[in-house]
Specification:
Blueprint lengths: L8 H15 L5 H10 L5 H14 L6 H18 L11 H16 L24
Amino acid sequence: MVNKRPINSEEMSYLLHLVTLATRRTFVEDEGSLWLHLLSDYTYDECHDAMTHFLKTEDAFLTPQRLASTIRARRRERLAEADMPKPPNGVSGQEYIEWLHGQIQIASAPPEAPQPQTLESNSGEEPKQLPE
């Protein structure tokens, strides 16, 4: 199943907490709300995958734009590597388009990310909730 739900404030708080642990960078409360607004078109799974990839491979200062660019690049990579099935026989043009869009979503989806409530931070502090 492909997660289509946009990232929420609890998940964004958790991801920014991970960045703080990994880089010792701190975020003010308003900054977290801005990140949530700018990344609201993406899912938690996509943001988690891109942030983890970015922190493992990049030295650059992490911004919402860089994270969004990483999400789009990771989608393209997964889609290029996907072994797309053959379309079903006997479908109409509209049915084919719907099938194709579904296959693209499945192929470009990141792996399911661990949920924030199931993980504990190394610092012993829990991430603060962002205002809705």
